Amino acid sequence: EAQLVESGGGLVKPGGSLRLACEVSGFSISIAWMSWVRQTPGKGLEWIGRVKTKADGETTEYASPVQGRFTISRDDSKNTFFLQINRLTTDDTAVYFCVTERSWYDVDSWYLWLGPWGQGTLVTVSS
Amino acid sequence: DIKMTQSPPSLSASVGDRVTITCRASQSLARFLNWYQQKPGKAPELLIYAASRLQSGVPSRFSGSGSGTDFTLSISSLQPEDFATYYCQQSYSSPWTFGQGTKVEIK
């Protein structure tokens, strides 16, 4: 059974940095696109970005609000992927989920969805 | 970015009721629309992908329909374990975006 476990969350001062890790078991992440999603009471669920497989160039994509401050990377040898967050602001306070992207091919389209998910790790940005 | 609008934001229903939640996209998604269920303190879980395909292990009382800009999640007979918050999410184009959620509460 697939399991994703986040670590690295906690209390950070504004302007600080944090690196979240997501350790995966039950399948090899080398064949999967991996994403991060965060959740706040005010903004709901927000997709942060993804890192594609090595076969797909290990390309990363990010949502506009985090572009330039957030970096997603992967270490397939450790079956783990990461989210580096720099220049934290209070707006980054959220529960951060790591999640894999799965797909299904029908006719001439690939349909993608998010899951399974990690349990989430809380990041609190406060002075 | 594609904006997703769910309605209603919340609803109260009784066990055994039929429940319908709608999701509207700001542009056509074809059938690139997923539905998730989230319980308090837990991560979201996939219910429906590609607008109408039931994820393995999800009870058949859940169903999804729609295409283009308008989609529906239905629960045919609400069960106690179904009280949760439901989200739609588009997978038509990056960045993926979610609806704001519909909280289903006990009446």
Describe the protein's architecture and organization.
- The complex is a heterodimer of chains A (127) and B (107).
- Chain A contains no helices and eleven strands.
- Chain A has strands spanning 3-7, 10-12, 18-25, 33-40, 44-51, 60-62, 70-75, 80-85, 94-106, 109-117, 121-125.
- In chain A, the strands form two sheets. In chain A, strands 2, 4, 5, 6, 9, 10 and 11 form a seven-stranded mixed sheet that branches.
- In chain A, strand 5 and strand 6 form a beta hairpin.
- Chain A is globular, with a radius of gyration of 15 Å.
- The relative contact order of chain A is 0.30.
- Chain B is mainly β and 107 residues long.
- Chain B contains no helices and eleven strands.
- Chain B has strands at residues 4-7, 10-13, 19-25, 33-38, 45-49, 53-54, 62-67, 70-75, 85-90, 97-98, 102-106.
- In chain B, the strands form two sheets. In chain B, strands 2, 4, 5, 6, 9, 10 and 11 form a seven-stranded mixed sheet that branches. Chain B has a four-stranded antiparallel sheet with strand order 1-3-8-7, with no helix packed on it.
- Chain B is globular and about 35 Å long.
- Chain A binds chain B through residues 35, 44-47, 49-50, 61-64, 97, 99, 104, 106, 109, 111-115, 117-120, and chain B through 1, 30-32, 34, 36, 42-46, 49-50, 53, 55, 87, 89, 91, 94-101.
Secondary structure layout:
The complex is a heterodimer of chains A (about 130) and B (about 110).
Chain A: E1 3-7, E2 10-12, E3 18-25, E4 33-40, E5 44-51, E6 60-62, E7 70-75, E8 80-85, E9 94-106, E10 109-117, E11 121-125
Parallel strand pairs in A: 2-11
Antiparallel strand pairs in A: 1-3, 3-8, 4-5, 4-9, 5-6, 7-8, 9-10, 9-11
Chain B: E1 4-7, E2 10-13, E3 19-25, E4 33-38, E5 45-49, E6 53-54, E7 62-67, E8 70-75, E9 85-90, E10 97-98, E11 102-106
Parallel strand pairs in B: 2-11
Antiparallel strand pairs in B: 1-3, 3-8, 4-5, 4-9, 5-6, 7-8, 9-10, 9-11
